[in-house]
Amino acid sequence: MPLSPDFKSRVLASVREVPAPTRKETLQRQTWLIAAGLTGALALFLIKGGLRVTSRPPSLIALTSVGTAVFVGVGMWLLFTRGPPGLRRPRTVLIGATVLSAAGFVGWRYGISSLYGRAGAWPGRVGLRCLVLSVGTGGLMLFAALMSWRRSDPVTPRATGAAFGAGAGLGSALLVDLWCPVGYVPHLLLGHVLPIAILSLAGGLIGGRVLGIMRRR
Amino acid sequence: MLSKAEVVKQAGGMNADEAMSQYAQGDVAAFEIVYEVVAPRIEGYVRRKVRDNARVEDIVQQTFENMHKARGRFIPGSDVLNWAFAIARNLVIDTGKKSGRESSADMTEENETMGAVLAAAVAGGEELFFARETGALLVRSFGRLTKQQQEVFELVKLEGLSYQQAAATLGITVPSVRMYAHRAYLTLREALGVDPFPGPPPVAA
User: What is the pLDDT of residues A108-151, one digit of tens each?
Assistant: First the structure.
């Protein structure tokens, strides 16, 4: 039974009843919210002390930060943007991007720290402070990303939320990398990688509720 | 109410992707072109999964409402059909969950229409189109496919989407789509009694 002309009129009328932002309005709103989220994250980072050199040689800081920026940048690009058809990338790509980016920056940081003889354990620096700072800065970025996409993902709200969470976690790793001098692997896993998993999980849970489009009753 | 040809002609021959891009920028009239092109495809897809006519119409209407509400997220130059299929599929799944998963149950029943469509989609099946036994056999075989094989087969063989479009719609990779389609195709050909790997003719002794 093909769709009737009456049905077409009904659909077009129902669409006219509900206001929907245009692409320009959406992008403006998104720009403001993302900028606010990044500013908040940066402010929290600066309040906590910002870049901490400690006893690290500047070349070590530069090398670890540049490497981390590359891994994190590629991961964030894959997680925050959409593929050519305009839809979220396949789940395997999102998971792969998260795991490889996290493994990449941890491996890079450990490798460079080892070259400088600074990959040993730091007594008393388990990684909890890094965990808190990562979740704090990443949480602000995640909140901004979720608000900028609020009620506008009709296809995969949970996957989008989880991707945003992982992306925000990677973004926070870049900031915390400048703050934390420790290159010990268990510390990196607890303080720098675990927040990515926490934020991704939170993003998936919140995204499922916040990003989807409400059905009419 | 204008016909599809009249609507497209009035819009200067704009295709659905361009029309959706225009609509995302705020051109209200462009949505009618999107509807004319997309609605029949979505309706056919939904109707194969949901039997009740009222629910089919409800899902199609909701698909267009969601496209409207999310128009600000449509990337100019993207494939609107792909996007619409992904939205409709999501709604079908939601509806199925709420109403006791009608969709998958439908597929395993002896549905003559579905059998005929499947028979036509499988190479060599045209001449068997009217054979009820073949239709029923295919429906049973289709029911034995995994859920993803069924979805890929429907999108690629029945809806005519490309592997790339089907992959984007389902949120999986293109190689996965190829694999699922291939396996589904083999299973259905075997059900028809067609050797999926025909070898050389036997040599006479």
Answer: 999 999 999 988 878 788 999 999 999 999 999 999 999 999 99
In order of start, what are the domains of chain B with their CATH numbers?
1-102 (1.10.1740.10), 109-194 (1.10.10.10)
**Chain B contact probe: residue of A93, A155, A217 with most B CBs at under 10 A:** A155
For the whole model, what pTM was predicted? 0.84
First to last CA, chain A: 25
Residue A111 lies in a domain: yes
Q: How many CB pairs under 8 A join A and B?
A: 127
pLDDT band at B121 (very low <50, low <70, confident <90, very high): low
Q: Rounded CA gap, A138 and A40, in Å?
A: 10
d(CA B111, CA A198): 47
- Per the rule left: phi > 0, alpha: psi between -120 and 50, beta: everything else, B79 is beta
Domain that holds residue A40: 23-210
When scoring B66, B79, B85, B91 by the number of chain A Cβ atoms within 10 A, the one with the most, hence best to mutate, is B66
